[in-house]
Amino acid sequence: MNSDRAFIGVDFVVDFVDGKFGSENARKVATKAEEFLKKIDSSETVVLTLDSHMTNDPEFRVWGEHCLRNTPGSYLYGNLDKINAYHIEKRFYDAFFQSDLDGFLRAKEIREVYIFGISTDICVLHTVAGAFFRYYNITIIDDLCASLREEDHNLALNQMKRLYGVKTIKSGELVNLNE
């Protein structure tokens, strides 16, 4: 266990995995993320964010209606809701913006964050920016991230490395997923 780190799973919600913006790749990554989270030490700090919007949210002008608060599209996909994790509802791409994520992490004296999720080029990218501007040490678990297009995923990973100095790692480097 490493008590000053947290694992942050961004937006493994139905609309992004199996719903409006879902894809086969997102389903594979969500299943792999669930396996990963089941294998890490139960004393680790885990946060799962849930994209959750109000009616007529300004974001709908860009993406259309999705992840309406308290509807199935905003719920965690599959059995991820059974993972021992702190859940954070968020309305913006950046999970830190106007949420209690930073306060929660600081109360636990977290300095290092391992971020993964959907979509690499939108909510993961902006959450990384939020973490960077709050002085966290950031590692991306890149095989637990997905975008609608592979080129957007790769571009976002390169941007995060270049702009925010993040490290990337594979989930198997942290736990053995082949057992």
Automatic annotation (TrEMBL):
**GO MF annotation list:** hydrolase activity
UniProt-listed InterPro entries: Isochorismatase-like_dom, Isochorismatase-like_hydrls, Isochorismatase-like_sf
> By its UniProt entry, which Pfam families does this protein fall under?
Isochorismatase (PF00857)
Task: Indicate the segments forming the Isochorismatase-like domain, all copies.
Answer: 6-166
Sorted keywords for this record are: Hydrolase
Please state what the protein is called: Nicotinamidase
- Give the organism, scientific name: Cuniculiplasma divulgatum
UniProt lineage: Archaea, Methanobacteriati, Thermoplasmatota, Thermoplasmata, Thermoplasmatales
